[in-house]
Every structure is written in C-alpha cells, then in structure tokens.
Amino acid sequence: MSLAADVLQGNRRALARLLTAVENHSPDAVEALTKLYPHTGQAHLVGVTGSPGTGKSSLVSQITLALRKSGKTVGIVAVDPTSPFSGGAILGDRIRMRDLSGDPGIFIRSMATRGSLGGLARATANVIRVLDAAGFDIILIETVGAGQSEVDIAGHAHTVLVVEAPGMGDDIQAIKAGILEIADVLVVNKSDDQRAQNTIRALRAMIELSSSRQEQTWINHHGQLTAVLASPDAPSEHNGTHWEVPIQATNSLSGEGIAELIEILDRHRAYMQDNGGLAHRRHMQVVAEVDALLSETLLAHLLDRVDRSRLATLIERAVARELVPQAIVELLIGDFL
Amino acid sequence: MSLAADVLQGNRRALARLLTAVENHSPDAVEALTKLYPHTGQAHLVGVTGSPGTGKSSLVSQITLALRKSGKTVGIVAVDPTSPFSGGAILGDRIRMRDLSGDPGIFIRSMATRGSLGGLARATANVIRVLDAAGFDIILIETVGAGQSEVDIAGHAHTVLVVEAPGMGDDIQAIKAGILEIADVLVVNKSDDQRAQNTIRALRAMIELSSSRQEQTWINHHGQLTAVLASPDAPSEHNGTHWEVPIQATNSLSGEGIAELIEILDRHRAYMQDNGGLAHRRHMQVVAEVDALLSETLLAHLLDRVDRSRLATLIERAVARELVPQAIVELLIGDFL
Description:
2 copies of one chain form a homodimer. Chain A is an alpha/beta fold. Chain A contains 16 helices and 7 strands. In chain A, strand 5, helix 9 and strand 6 (185-188) form a beta-alpha-beta unit. The two termini of chain A are 42 Å apart. Residues 83-96, 170-175 and 212-221 of chain A have low confidence and may be disordered.
C-alpha cells in the first residue's frame, strides 16, 4: 500500500514518515502529496503567532486540551523561522507539550528553517496539507516573531490568532502594527497580570485606528503572478458583512477565557465560509505558491544546464565590477532560452 | 549629458532623479547603473539596525554630524521593510533629520516596500551603489525590526551595527539572538539609563555564548546558486585574526560615546580590508543578487509568453483541488522550455 493510502487510513507512523519526506522535499513526497491533495480542505487552519514570552505555546496546549474534550482532533505545526540564527527557541517550548503527546487525537510537528525561508514556507504548506488529508479537525500553526515569514505562514490559515502579553511598551507596539493587520482574533494572555486591561485598551485603540483592510495586505505580497492574473476582489469589498477583530483575555495557566476563545474560532470559520473569505484566501495562497514554485523550478532548470566555469567567471567579473549583476543574468538567460 | 555622468559630477538633482528611477526599476536606471558600476566600491557601507525605540534614528543623526565635522560626506538610506503593513514608522523618524538636510555633504533617502521584499532588497542594493558612485565617503543603511529583511539588507554592509536600548526583558532578547549574530558592533544607546550596565553585561554574555560564526549565517541564505558555485571560505576560517564584537555605550542626546563609536567603525573597516572580509562579503552579495535576479527574470519571461486564460484555468483547477500546484508548474514550464 502507498504512503498516501496509509496516511488516509490514519496510520501515525506513515504520517510521521511522510512529513519527514515532505520536509526533505523528496520525490516520494511529491507523489504522496498529489494523491492526498483531493482529500484536503476539511480542516480548520488556525495560525497562532506572537512574540516569545507571550505564553503562546502554553496557550496552544490549552486550546488543544479544550478541543480534545469536545471530541475534536488537533494537528499542531510549530514553525520557527528564526532558528537558523537562534537555534530554535520554539522547539524548547515543545517540551511543555509532552503531556499532550500520548493522545492519538493529537499530532505535533516542529519545523525549523533549513536553507531558505521560501523553502520553509513551502514545506509548511505541504505539512499542513498532509495533516489536513489525514483528517485532523483543527490544525494549529504556531509561529514565532514578527516579520515577512509570519505573514507568509499566516497566509495558509483560515483564522489568524495574534497573542500579546500585558505590559509591553509602546516601542514594541510599533513593530507589532504589522502583525495586528493580519490578526482575525487578538488574545491578551496572562490575564491575571494587572496590566492586562491597559493592554486590551491599547490594542482596541490600535485596531480602531488601523483603516487598511487586511485582505489588501495579502495581495501586495504575491509577486509577479498576481499582476498577470485578474485578482478576485477581497470579500469585504463586495459584501456588507464585516468582521470586528475580537480581543479575548486568556490565562493559559488557569484556563480562563479558553472556552470563549474556541467559540470565537468557530464563529470566525463560519464567517469566512459564509462571506467567501475562505475561497478568497485559498485562491491567493495557490497563486503565491505557484509563483514561488515557478521561479524556483525555472532557476533549477537553468542551473542544471549552466556551464559552471562560465558562471564562476561571470560572478568573478561582477565582483571585480567589470559587469553588473543584471548583465550576468541576461547572458545566462540568453544561453538558456 | 547622461544621468550617470551628472551624478558622477555631484549633481544632487540628478542623484535624486536617478534614485527615483532605481526605485521604480525603470529602464533609464539600468543604463545608468551599468555606467556607474565601475565607480562603486569606495564608500564604507555601514548597516544600522535595531528595534523601534532604541533611538536608532537619533544615533544615525549623531554619527552623521560627527562624521561631517571630520570632513567626511555621508549618504543615509533608511529602509522600512514593515511599511506595507504599518505605514512606515521609520519615515516619521526622518523628521528629526531635517536639521541635517541643508548640508550638501549629506544625502538622505527613505525607502519603503512597494510590492515584494525581494524588490526592496534589490532596490536598496542599487540605491547604495548610486550613492557609492556619487562619492559619499560613508553610507549608513538604517533598517528597522528583526527578520530576514534585516539579514538581507545587512548583507550589503561592510560593518553591521546593532543598536539596543537598556532594560529589554529576556523575552525580547530571545528574538534578538538572530540579530546579534549579524552584528559587527553592538551599541547600547541611552547610556544614561540606569539599566544600561545590566544590558551591556547581558549582551556580553550572549556574545560569548554564541559560538556560531556570523559568516556562516550569510552563506545559509544565498539560495540555489550557492550550491552550484564553489563558495570561498569565510575569511575567519583561513586567517588567524579574529574580530571581537565590541559593545559601545552611547547617548544620542548628549553625544557621549559617538567619537568612540566612529573609531570602532574605522577599525572594523580596516580589519575587514586586511583579512579579506570585504572581498568575501562582496562575493556572497553578488551571488545572492544574481540568484534573486535570475529567478525573477526567468519568471518574467515565462509570464510574458504564457497563455493567460490557460494560466487562470490551471489556477482555478488547483483551487478546486483537482491539480496540485507542483503539477501546474510542470505544465507551464513544459510549455515554456
């Protein structure tokens, strides 16, 4: 039986094996992904992002336990785009999850960057697909930090949950502005902290100030392919309904606010389904993925055929300032096409 | 006379006009860049990065004023990779620089993301080249935040200066670990803050702990082309000398520590020149740029020839889960090659 068939039957060892193949971009993975693709699209994909120290990982554990109590199965993908530098802080957090891992209704996968960020984003997309096809009801995609990688990874989710902790200064808030714009739901964790109410007030003010629509933000980041294709309108544009970003206080130690948060997640999923938001995000994500895969594969074809000593000579001439990089590109593409 | 010739003669209006052309990727810019390229390589390129609230922009102003006093000319490129989201916090900071802008020995350019981050990184590289060819002695490249874009932009600099402020919690330090590894010089600004000494101690401990060499970090991020080319060794590998990352306390209000910081910058430039570090960074940067330009240009060629209605149909089939994105890519490349 094929790896894909084993995964569809709920075989956990096959699942783990396929995920490793996917992370290594092995040919087996391509075949299995093709078979699994029609089985995807059932899971609710929830992105969870926020700075280290917000208690994000404990929150993910609490959400998971609560979902399990209501009979739902949960896949967790923990992505650390900073790990080539810092050595993977998020992986350490996973230790806390050990008590979850005996439950067959939960599957946890940690991912770190190997090589390029683009490679990580694509591997993450495929890992999510495999878990989706494997039948998990909800997939939590946990990322750390603030930056383009968050936005890319959030692009895979139906619902993006941004976690904040009380008492962060205004300086930090400034850098967070970008992350707020991708949030469907805001969580202020550590609600027992006396500064929690202040943070909630500050976040509410920031949300009200932010006039730009988040769907627009996604579109700006989809590269050349978007310009060629007629983009579908963001659903908020041709539809009267509007999603007010809720701010939920939680305490991942006492469990306070977790039940309310899960209700909000359900409500957001229903909203996205009703107003066409799911279909829109899905379309944008496919376009972005094809764009990235196309340029990467084209380059691989060119490099496959390139004369390496000629390439090395051209690079050296650019280093010596005899040739601009653009000129090298034209020469190489001229040879290739 | 051509735009390039005017820029070489020190015409400021031509310079501003060319920079706009460069940012818009206009054909004029390509021609001028080709002419200017042999005139580049004289300036000392200094990256300045750090979170909002560290007083980074005031520090850049102070460094600039001090450099001007010693007769050096200064170009400032302020890059805000977060601005498609947050609306460009760094641009606001520029207002403080108004008092610098009457001096013809200073040229300030603010850049924000239009479209992709890759596009911003490339435009930044070209803006730096133009200022370099225009004869500025030192070019300060100021970026905000923490993420891949910092690393990319830092890749253009000979000397990377990371600015910290006193009193940042351990949580924040964790995310900063990545940024520390790209630092050639650390600055603890706001040295009058009573917590400054603690921050200096914490940073020193982090530097001593970090065993990985920064040159290695660059190499990991240079994409497919690096794998094809034989990479030159990082200079630290075949050379006995070693750069101890200095930590300099500064106060951008009183000017304390600025003279010492400028001495450190000079010392680092001399070190990089002596041990081959400059040549190595330059090589890696050319490779990264050719890699990015190649994939982008190849994709542009393909999209130029693609049947748009066929492309749209394929995308819709992927959205409907009938076709994996990888299959679309193979079909399109099959048509193209």
